[in-house]
Design brief:
about 80% helix, single chain, disordered N terminus, globular
């Protein structure tokens, strides 16, 4: 009944439904969104752009894999999912360590090692939960938004990926002004690092 109503909805209504679904499912706290927030808070906006760009392009790559149906092949290979999970967990632990030990922004110099584009891209494509979330949104869009063509759905989801990561990054950089004080910096960075690890552990639960 609900699917019938959605299929008869106007294109703008189906577009709005797709945007809302993407915001709720893809924009909720998770390894990718929490990590970009934590990196933004620990290293500032400019130093985090490379990492955030890697996350965005990596997530877009996951979207294209899902759209192409390759995710079904990956799902039939449990060993591959295990490898991706291990790689993702290892990098998240490394990233949490870098955030927890980051110097106050006022002391950050050229010698500071910031998370990189490659690191963000690797985390995005090695996160099995990203495939599940994007597949859920894409499958829902495919079954309920007949008025929107495939390219239009992909374009909308790509834009949402950019907007979601930008919003979480800006939220993180909003803490930057507190991170010039050594004590406040250490406390906030430790909180973000712990949140990143705990959120990832929660997402890994069946």
């Amino acid at each position: 009944m609900a699917a019938g109503v959605l299929s008869e909805a106007q294109p703008w209504q189906q577009l709005l439904a797709l945007i809302v679904a993407a915001t709720v499912v893809m924009g909720s706290p998770g390894p990718s969104t929490i990590s970009v927030t934590a990196v933004g808070a620990a290293f500032g906006l400019r130093s985090s752009l490379g990492y955030a760009s890697g996350l965005v392009l990596g997530t877009v790559a996951v979207l294209l894999v899902v759209a192409a149906g390759i995710v079904g092949v990956l799902a039939s290979m449990p060993a591959m999912a295990t490898v991706l999970t291990i790689l993702s967990a290892a990098y998240i632990l490394y990233l949490a360590f870098k955030i927890a030990t980051a110097s106050p922004l006022a002391e950050s110099g050229k010698q500071a090692t910031h998370p990189t584009f490659a690191g963000g891209f690797m985390l995005a494509v090695a996160n099995p939960k990203a495939y599940v979330a994007i597949a859920a949104v894409f499958a829902g869009a495919s079954s309920q938004a007949e008025a929107l063509g495939g390219p239009a759905k992909l374009l909308v989801l790509v834009v949402m990926i950019v907007v979601i990561h930008a919003a979480w990054l800006l939220a993180g950089t909003g803490f930057a002004r507190f991170l010039r004080h050594p004590v406040a910096s250490r406390i906030i960075n430790l909180i973000f690092a712990a949140t990143l690890v705990l959120t990832t552990a929660w997402a890994a639960l069946p």
